[in-house]
Amino acid sequence: MELSSFFLMRHEMVLLAIALILIIAEILIPKQKKSSAVHLAIFLFGIHTALGFFPLEESSLFGGMFRTNSLIHFFKNVLNIGVFILLLQSADWIQEKIVKLNRGTEFFILLFFSLLGMYFMISAGDFLMFYIGMELSTIPVAALAAFELVKRTSSEAGIKLILSAALASGISLFGISLLYATSGSIYFHDIIEVITSNNLTILGFVLFFAGLAFKISLVPFHFWTADVYEGAPISVASYLSVISKGAAVFILMILMFTVLRPLMEVWENMIYVVALATMFVGNLFALRQQNMKRFLAFSSIAQAGFILLGLITGTQLGTASVVYFVMIYIFSNLAAFGVVQAISLKTGKENIDDYNGLYRTNPKLSLIMLLALFSLAGIPPVAGFFGKFFLYTAAASEGYYFLVFLAVVNVTISLYYYLLVVRAMFLRTNENPIPFFNNKLYMRLGLGITVIGILVLGVYSPLYDYIYELSAVFNQ
Amino acid sequence: MNISYLFLIPIIPLVVFLVLGIFNKKIKPAVSGWIGVAGLATSTILSFYAAFQYFFVTGKLDGAYQTFTKKTVWLNFTDTLHIDLGILIDPISIMMLIVVSTISLMVHIYSRGYMKEDPGYTKFFAFLSLFTFSMYGLVLATNLFQIYIFWELVGVSSFLLIGYYYTKNSAVAAAKKAFIVTRFADFGFLIGILIIGFYTGTWDFETLNNPEGAAIANWASTSFMGLSVLTWALILIFIGGAGKSAMFPLHIWLPDAMEGPTPVSALIHAATMVVAGVYLVARLFPMYYFVEEGFVLNIVAYVGAFSSLFAAIIAITQTDIKRVLAFSTMSQIGYMMMALGVSGYDGHEGVGYMASMFHLFTHAMFKALLFLGAGSVIHAVHSNYLKDMGGLRKHMPITNITFLIAALAIAGVPPLAGFWSKDEILVAAFENSQFLYSIGILVAGLTAFYMFRLYFGIFWGKETNYAHKPKESPRSMTIPLVILAIFSIVVGFIPFSEYVTADKLGFVAHLNYPLAATAVLIGLIGIIFAWIFYKKENDLAERFANAFGIFYRWTSNKFYFDELYLFITRKLIFKRISAPIAYFDKKFVDGTMEGIGNKTLVVANKIKGIQSGKVQDYAFGFISGVVVLAIVFIYLWTN
């Protein structure tokens, strides 16, 4: 193996290097100047994001344990952009709250290691690499969830996440071992050859699926979501709801469309059931929420249900629509979380009622929130509409008309609660409204990028065509 | 021909709109006016440059003008059916570019003076730019769907500008009326577009308009109620065009649209947007001509001729000067439609098509001039009504002269612009049908009469006791008047038939002396009658009005068409149809939906308990989920 072939792991190596630089910086930077580490981290990650756009060859490493191709590469870039926006949005919070505790750098290091885990997870060529990646992506997040030590709810979120995650990963590992038992290999390309649909394999698949479903927070594996989102710092909730969920959806899709395709008869029915349960449960719970973070938690569960519409198809159209939707979802949800973050940081208010009359005092934030919610609800002409549109197209082209119909019913329900927030912001009045405030540069940038994304991604059609082309990789 | 740079023409006004719209309050009014003018001046220069390049340098190949397109696929439906965005350059789109640019630039300059005191100055310029952008997009569209998008956008900008004085109830009502009536027509347009997409598999103008192409060749393949489906589609599209161009019976919005600021009336409701319907038919002319042997063109011709006569008669009795001009616009557009309707395709047979475009071009110049002149008068005397005017020629010499030039032009007096284009239209009508020709010649006489009634009424006659002594408008307003007056004199000499023809080959048009002489004579008779009636104050007009009694009342009330529509909508549709439907909707549809909504909330309340907050419960749920899935999919689902 040539040394140069290590460059296939460029994403991983650069990110690892950044994490290591930050560890060293943590030691070297004197205590009074710790906030400069925030600038450093954002700067380095910005470079990393930019570097990611250089093209990469398609190949595999370590005897097939690690592989990469154009779609995986593209998806890593999407994750990078998401994390970059997230960093911009969190910067103020870290500088104001976390640096004081002398833990600013730690936040970034943990976050980057988790992202590194996701890289490995989606680039995995065998179940071992997949499992290590999944663990690496989860455990640091549990530490992050418990990051605000002064808050009891934050610790509660951390412990709930780590307990649930341990359960999920144990079950998933058991499922993987059953798959190994029936196929005699952990390498994906070997398993494809021998896997057949028998009872033990199906059991293995169900257990394995439960592990990933936990990360995507599909019903009935979603219970942790709301509590953790509510208790954890907003940045972490935001990370869990977009980056972590996006990566898990992606790898689940790849595995189902390639390795587990012989089980398609099983998983398409399973996804059908789970998709319906997820959409309805997510939406029904979201209706009643008063806390913005819990509200967004259930909304993100419902959104995961919609993503399954693309997963059920097993076609190139399905892959493309899922990747496209996840990308748009990242922008929309980050915009919503960003506004919640900004308001929470300035005023500590997180309830929907607190948002009453927000438009009068903070019109720009209200408009961003409006765009984000419209995009999540799928109202044209913002990006979310196109995302959902292609998911429906994919599902309908495989004949799932009834599922699409029920999805549309669910969109209607979701419209109700998204508009509740809009009504609070624009139509309600408040005797004690959130006062006007200006955001700092990082937050402005973070919100600005999401707004551009929401406005442009949907109507810029070459992007979808590009993703569609890339999607051919997993659908020969 | 490299046409990439032409993208700038629509984009510049769009940028101006965004800048003025976003920084509305932060820009000083003086600056925002200049931004608007500068942006549009750039677009205008580009348009003229493009026209020069196209007509004189690179546009021709083997004697025929070429069509250039540059586009990108925006939404894909099938291999052939997709929505493109792009620009299409051919003789009529270039001609429209010139019209839109020139008039819009003049209106921009003029508005700097006219709207000076207005508090919403920046907003006004933002709306003007939005309109100009939309109109450029409409003109340059490469396919039916794109034209539809911009079609709606001009509708929206028109709505915004008519209702610009939004504190005035009548302006708001007029804006709504215009929007609803044209929207109603656009519904037909949309269905037409969808039919064409479904049966021909393309929306692309080049493909559709190719005389040897599949769309035209196979027009007879599917028929519906005795006509080919494409014929139906073309009729529906014409309905859309008729709505926008205020053709009978969809004309009722145009007079009310005069509630908008006068520069807007000049730009939108005289020169550009209202002729979009004519442009649309011209854009699809090969289809109109070849499908069902031009069946739809007959409809176009008769609707145009009737509207033309109808509007000219009403114009005689109106006392609001802008309304006279509005009906005059409707009448002249009817002329253009009639010319399109009687046109052939090849060579000299296509004289109607050429005449229609020619008249569109000259009409834009002198009608915009008339409106801006009327605006100048209104600016001076603060009233729209003829009774408040009179004898203004001494006070406003420049407005007087320019208005006179425009009035002579529209009356068809040689050698002004209107004479040449009107003559071509009459030639085309004469060669096709004596009946249409006689309507045309009658309208020519009526036009000359009501236009000089207006002119004498404003500038001659007895001087009213003005509260303030009226004075000539500022330079920013008179300069556009002078420029447009020059255009109204010279554009008639452009040999249009060599540039803009249906088959793009060009031919030499000759003046038909007998017909021209008749038309000029009729026009002069009209002017002389107006002279007798209105030059000096006398009671002749009143006596005639009394003598004609009922007829006079009918015309001055616009044949009670507004009342008819009100009767149909309020008494028939609202009461007999809408009310029962609304009842059903409220009780049954809404009732069902509300029931579902309430049930949903009840369910949401009931299942709240599942989310207990205890990790043990969560783990239990998790494991149960796994077990249930495993059992279902191992034992129940698979055999």
Describe it.
- The complex is a heterodimer of chains A (476) and B (639).
- Chain A contains 19 helices and two strands.
- By secondary structure, chain A is an all-alpha fold.
- Chain A has one domain.
- Chain B has 639 residues and is mainly alpha-helical.
- Chain B has 26 helices and six strands.
- In chain B, strands 1-2 form a two-stranded antiparallel sheet. Chain B has a two-stranded antiparallel sheet with strand order 3-4. In chain B, strands 5-6 form a two-stranded antiparallel ribbon.
- In chain B, 52% of the residues are buried.
- Chains A and B meet through helix 6, helix 8, helix 9, helix 11 and helix 19 of A and strand 3, helix 25 and helix 26 of B.
Features:
heterodimer, A: 476 residues, mainly alpha, two-stranded antiparallel sheet, 19 helices, 2 strands, globular, B: 639 residues, two-stranded antiparallel ribbon, 6 strands
Concise summary:
The complex is a heterodimer of chains A (about 475) and B (about 650). Chain A is mainly alpha-helical and about 475 residues long.
| Total number of beta strands of chain A | 2
Mean pLDDT of chain B: 84
**Order of neighbouring strands in the sheet with most strands of chain A:** 1-2
- Choose one word for the global shape of chain A: globular
Question: Topology, pairings included?
Answer:
The complex is a heterodimer of chains A (476) and B (639).
Chain A: H1 10-28, H2 35-51, E1 59-61, E2 66-68, H3 70-98, H4 104-123, H5 127-145, H6 152-183, H7 188-194, H8 199-216, H9 224-231, H10 234-257, H11 264-287, H12 292-311, H13 316-347, H14 358-361, H15 363-377, H16 383-397, H17 401-426, H18 441-456, H19 461-470
Antiparallel strand pairs in A: 1-2
Chain B: H1 8-22, H2 29-58, E1 60-61, E2 64-65, E3 68-76, E4 82-89, H3 91-114, H4 121-140, H5 144-162, H6 169-200, H7 205-209, H8 214-217, E5 223-224, E6 227-228, H9 229-244, H10 253-256, H11 262-271, H12 276-283, H13 285-290, H14 295-317, H15 321-341, H16 351-381, H17 397-411, H18 417-432, H19 434-459, H20 475-490, H21 496-499, H22 513-535, H23 540-548, H24 550-556, H25 561-606, H26 615-637
Helix pairs in contact in B: 1-2, 1-4, 2-3, 2-4, 3-4, 3-11, 3-16, 3-20, 4-5, 5-6, 6-9, 9-12, 9-14, 11-16, 14-15, 14-19, 15-16, 15-18, 15-19, 16-17, 16-18, 16-20, 17-19, 17-20, 18-19, 18-22, 19-22
